[in-house]
Amino acid sequence: MDNFTKDDNFSFAYACPNDVVCLLEVTVVIAVSFLVVTSNITSLVVLVSTPSFRNGHGYLLMSLSVADLLVGGVAVLSIYPSADFQDTAYTWPYGDTVCLIAAYAGQLALINSGLALLALSIERYIAVAHPLKYASLVTKKTVSIVITVCWIVSASVFITILLGILPHSYAPQFYICQSVYAMTSLLSLVPTFAAVLPCFIIMLVTSAIVGRKLKESARRRAAMAPAIPESSNSSGGTAQNSIKLYRTVRIMMIAICFHLCPFLIVRFLTIFHEESVPQVISFAAYWWMISNSLVNTVIYYIKNTKYRDRVHELAAKLVPSCFRDLEGRLPCTCWCSRSRNTLPYSCGSSGGSGRPNVELIVVKTEELQDTVSPFRKI
Questions:
Q1: What pTM does this model have?
Q2: pLDDT of res. 174
Q3: Which segments cross the bilayer (predicted)?
Q4: Which segments in the chain show pLDDT lower than 50?
Q5: Three-state SS across the chain?
């Protein structure tokens, strides 16, 4: 590659050890990239289209989804290099400019994903520990300012990559471009711990304070003197709902720490250990960290009923009705016909003028013949 920035001093084994491992890594790259992108696009659609999420909590979730979507977008660039199967460090096909942008965007997205979770943890702490102050502290304007500051500050910090102050290179063990400083320098651990340690500390402190508050509330309720009113607050639910949301965010904080720790260990070994780190271990640690951008959405989907119901509602509108209204266990296939000419169009609604007529065709599997008969019209 012309004008490609490279570094030959990484303490990594560049190539996957054999074709089977290479194929497994390609599968992982494609699966993680696709799931991260689709899940966060879905999350953004749900959050933007649901009025009850248009509050401070919802804005922070949108910021998290945007950051995770950017992580997925950078991860998509790894599909072609991972499928190249070449035992070389120079298989980046997109040129040095895209490599530079990928290195910058990857750092920006990962740090903002962590910052969004950090802000969510603080927001939920206020909702549970200080519910009467929540409406005045966590406003749309305040949250918007916090989100904007986080993105601007992180973008300014990592602008050194775009300016060429910090060199960038294609990292074949990850199949993506990164800052060389971020991978091999001892000083790179300083901003890493500056971003990670506050998450640990805030998670521990807020968990301890909220736990104490909940115990006090339970004792007072037992004495028929509620400590936290059960009336609705500005976050869109009762105090019990606020507690559930706090526990959801706490699980998300634990998940990001769980996904980040293996990669930090690999970083330590890379910097302090004289021998090279096996490519399989480096790959697994990095893509395990990237998969956290999918896990955030999955956790919120599982733990939040309102979010889950909205996903199902949107899915019901998008998924062809023939797949939602099947009766029995007979296999079926969907056909759309225009003016009596049956063609395999994608299924849609049959109502309204100008729309294709949709027929549900039931294939009688017990008969060895090619004929099909209409079962019903949707």
A1: 0.75
A2: 86
A3: 26-47, 59-80, 100-122, 143-166, 186-211, 251-272, 284-302
A4: 1-13, 87, 89, 225-237, 326-378
A5: CCCCCCCCCCCECCCCCCHHHHHHHHHHHHHHHHHHHHHHHHHHHHHHHCHHHCCHHHHHHHHHHHHHHHHHHHHHCCHHHHCCCCCCCCCCCCCHHHHHHHHHHHHHHHHHHHHHHHHHHHHHHHHHHCHHHHHHHCCHHHHHHHHHHHHHHHHHHCHHHHCCCCCEEEECCCCEEEEHHHHHCHHHHHHHHHHHHHHHHHHHHHHHHHHHHHHHHHHHHHCCCCCCCCCCCCCCCCHHHHHHHHHHHHHHHHHHHHHHHHHHHHHHHHHHCCCCECHHHHHHHHHHHHCHHHHHHHHHHHHCHHHHHHHHHHHHHHCCHHHHCCCCCCCEEEEEEECCEEEECCCCCCCCCCCCEEEEEECCCCCCCCCCEEEEEC
